[in-house]
Design a protein that fits this description.
With 401 residues, the protein is an alpha/beta fold. Helices cover 41% and strands 19% of the residues. The chain has an 8-stranded mixed sheet with strand order 8-7-10-11-12-13-15-14. It has a 5-stranded parallel sheet with strand order 2-3-4-1-5, with helices on both faces. Strands 6-9 form a two-stranded antiparallel ribbon.
Amino acid sequence: MIYRTEYMERLKAFKDNKIIKVVTGLRRSGKSTLLKMFCDELLQNGVQPEQIQYINFELMKYDSVRNYEQLYNLVIKKALPNKKNYFFFDEIQQVSGWEKTINSLSLEYDADIYVTGSNAYLLSSELATLISGRYVEIKMLPLSFKEYYSYYCDRGKSKEELFNNYLKYGGLPQLLSLPQDEQTISTFLSSIYDTIIIKDVLGRNKLKDVDLLKRVYAFVCGNVGSITSTNSIAKYIANEAKLDKSVRPATIGNILEMLENAFIIYRANRYDVKGKEVLKSLEKYYLADTGLKNTITGYNLENYGHTIENVVYLELIRRGYQVYVGKNDTKEIDFVAINKEEKRYFQVCETLIDKATQEREIASFHLTHDFFEKTIITTDKTYVTNVNGIKIVNLIDFLLS
């Protein structure tokens, strides 16, 4: 197991108070392991075993617990009335009305509550109404390259070799325990993909057309980082599948939303740099994990530039930014990253060796007419770190910083 320092620190920041900790993210991104690690630290720091209840709804022994009343009755059998209780509920979205139980436990007991889920429906309007202002969402992603590198760095492989493996196989934590051969990893990733499609997408929605769902996901995988629309996806799929009837763009939009809610894809809206507003059309999509993408597209160099762009997008999300695609008149900025403290602009490219590429990447920054930090991230290893105030950063150095 790899210690997820960033997420552990976030949990610790809210420990021993009434704020409910809701950990969301892609299936197999490490949520269950995170809770187990946190339980272990509680025990090491003097919390007694009887104070902790850990329930994983993926286990058969909890199959009969499927509504909030059954969950409540199960928990209160062991709950301590005069002591701090630590309640951990893993993949709780499988329990109908679970939020009612959580709300009641929070009010009745001295309770520190942690829940996880693999679908954004976990944070429904009903939940928000019941515990409004009393929960915090911690969004979990697969391993960053920095985490991946820290696990393998003392095993004789170069940064570049490890980065290539990371791009190829992705960052799902369970990969670290598997033999590092292509067939084993491909089989594992295919099984995770099938589980996400069946349990976290089809299982939470009324969609019956599995083929259409898989075609939409495959389209996103093959067009990472490309401006797209529901109309263009609908036309492409209808032509590719040689359908006798057209595919409704609204149906495509619904499927994209389902995939987003399962945390397997992310949407980046466009941001008008001049008008300082978020635009509602022609967005880009990125994948939660490059390994899952490669199970669909295969391992190839065709979309290498878009793949490294995907990695940078996820890294900016990890660092707490809202990430948009920048529209700057007729130019495009790969990413506009915004948080409460700053706004930053990023371009991502394979190489700046070609002069025409240099000019194109730099030109996208020229019309911003502001002084926010501007950075070009490239796979080049170069001593040039600044061009007219624009930072030049090596991709691997950026990810490890």
